Amino acid sequence: MIKKLILVALLAVFSLSLIGCQTVSGLGGDIQWTAEKTADMIEGN
Q1: What is the distance between the alpha carbons of residues 8 and 19, in angstroms, rounded to a whole number?
Q2: How far apart are the C-alpha atoms of 45 and 1, rounded to whole Å?
Q3: Alpha-carbon span 34 to 17, nearest angstrom
Q4: How far apart are CA 41 and CA 8, in angstroms?
Q5: pTM across the whole model
Q6: Cα angle 30, 32, 38; round to 5
Q7: Residues 16-32: pLDDT tens digits?
Q8: Are 32 and 26 in contact (CB under 8 A)?
Q9: Mean pLDDT in the chain?
């Protein structure tokens, strides 16, 4: 049951992120932005 709830939650997050981007290039930009912000946090900037 817990596995099903986790799966549903992950699918919901994935679906909402795709709706928010609306394009493949938008998704790529979001991934790039997330990677840059993560690198900044790791470096302490």
Answers
A1: 16
A2: 42
A3: 13
A4: 30
A5: 0.43
A6: 100
A7: 776 666 666 666 777 88
A8: no
A9: 79
